[in-house]
Design brief:
45% of the residues lie in helices and 7% in strands. By secondary structure, it is mainly α. The strands form 3 sheets. Strands 5-6-7 form a 3-stranded parallel β-sheet, sandwiched between helices. The protein starts with 22 loop residues before the first helix and ends with a helix. About 4% of the residues have low confidence.
Length: 348
């Protein structure tokens, strides 16, 4: 009995409901999918751009004209269309504005490419032409660019306001533009004749209860943690504070950043201690107390009056720190500790 041979023909297994296209059909299908995405956001472009009303699978409603938000809320499955979403994300991450413009231009470039494909122009030639055009455009932009001095705050605020027109904060764009310029000027550093700006130095904290117009710029670092200190005054050691107030600020702070626990180290396995003599029990407790006291004494010897601890602080150690008027915060996030280290120059 002879067995039929497939003669090297590949066997392709597809999921139910899926289809496979090749060659020109695949090219046109991909271009069409990307163009549909571009057409969706096109009408939201510019000062007369219209808002989009988006409803997700849970029924939550979003109304916006921001291209990045629109594309994030859309449930896109087509691979080529997803690339358009990636274009918007890259633009937003690098520049913070122009997402709709980037997607619309990409869609238009694809439409022109489709016309060339219909004229039997090979895709590699089209790609080469677009790359050459991009190099030319970059040169032209360099030639027509206007240099901005750091002292020209009015021009910088005008640039910032332009990017805020399509955002939720557009009603307070003047205030936010001023805050943005001031924040960037605070963190700008000059190295080798060039001004470098690390956006990670700017921290945005959102708190409910106030209007957009109440937004302020703070020259410092905000840590969203409550202090572990009980607020005992240094002059009332061992006694109830007669004033009855708790200290909310520390002047001339000397900050210690600790990335381990101020606690008695526990064993890696379960341990059981049997004590029959009450005096030995006291010795055992005293030993723990002394270990914690030594930890606190090292902090005091270093001259620190503020302690940020990444992990926990034992209640007894907390008592010792409070009695010496040391302001403490524990269970800090690792990122917050790194920000504190960078802001204060303290070593973890």
């Amino acid at each position: 009995m002879s067995v039929p041979q497939l003669a090297g023909t590949p066997v392709i297994i597809l999921k139910e409901g899926s289809s496979r296209s090749r060659g020109r059909d695949a090219l046109h299908a991909n271009i069409m999918a990307a163009q549909i995405v571009a057409e969706t956001v096109r009408s939201s472009l510019g000062p007369k751009g219209m808002d989009k009303m988006l409803v997700d699978s849970l029924g939550d409603l979003t109304i916006t004209s921001d291209g990045r938000t629109i594309l994030d809320e859309m449930d896109i499955q087509h691979p080529a269309a997803k690339i358009m979403v990636e274009v918007a994300k890259a633009q937003d991450d690098m520049v913070g504005d122009g997402t709709t413009t980037a997607v619309v231009i990409a869609g238009e470039l694809l439409r022109k490419a489709e016309d060339l494909l219909d004229q039997s122009v090979h895709p590699t030639i089209i790609i080469k032409g677009y790359r050459q055009a991009a190099e030319t455009v970059l040169k032209i932009l360099d030639d027509i660019a206007i240099p901005i001095e750091r002292s020209d705050e009015e021009l910088m605020e005008a640039v910032a306001k332009t990017s805020l027109y399509s955002k939720i904060v557009s009603g307070e764009r003047k205030l936010f533009a001023k805050i943005a310029v001031q924040a960037i000027k605070q963190i700008a550093e000059k190295e080798d004749g060039k001004v470098n700006v690390d956006i990670d130095y700017v921290q945005i904290q959102k708190k409910e209860g106030e209007s957009l117009g109440e937004t302020t710029l703070l020259n410092g670092l905000i840590i969203g943690k409550e202090a572990a200190s009980t607020g005992i005054c240094p002059t009332c050691v061992g006694n109830v504070c007669e004033i009855g107030s708790t200290s909310k600020s520390v002047k001339d702070a000397k900050i210690a950043l600790i990335n381990r626990a101020l606690e008695i180290k526990k064993t890696e396995f379960d341990a059981k201690i049997q004590i029959s003599d009450p005096t030995k029990m006291k010795l055992f407790m005293d030993k723990e107390h002394n270990m914690l006291r030594d930890m606190v004494q090292k902090i005091l010897d270093a001259g620190a009056n503020v302690v940020f601890c990444q992990k926990g602080i034992d209640d007894l150690a907390q008592h010792f720190l409070d009695s010496h008027g040391v302001y403490t915060v524990h269970n800090m996030k690792e990122k917050d500790m790194e920000k504190l280290s960078r802001a204060t120059g303290a070593k973890l």
